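Morning F.,

Quick status update on the modeling queue. The single chain you submitted on Monday has been processed. Sequence for confirmation:
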Amino acid sequence: MGLLAFIMAYALFAFIFYILQVIAYWKIFTKAGEEGWKSIIPIYNGYVQYRLTWDVQYFWVALGLAVGGGILNSFGGIVGVIGSLALLGTALMNVVALYKLACAYGYGIGFTIGLFFLNPLFMLILGFGDSEYMGPQE
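Structure tokens below.
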């Protein structure tokens, strides 16, 4: 019974996390002039985020690294190491994407650190806060 309760609690936490992300992205997208429903579709919301804050080409690179890294990582050995490096590249690109998101709304590196460690909270701050969308920043 304990394992089932743990699984149910984990599933509930994941569902609440997803709902908070959708709400935050909805507000972030509407601030940027996008339609909020785009926040509901999991991969498409990442595409829209990259389009609003960085460049779509980097989205495709990050997606390719994530998928390719996941597949290669499952083989183990040297191929698994290459897959792990691809996944590390994806993680680094996601950190840069968080920085670009923070900059597009007038924040800096400190807010990026908050987005990295307390993502749902800082995404809600971006969505419901006073910040305005300023477009992609260099």
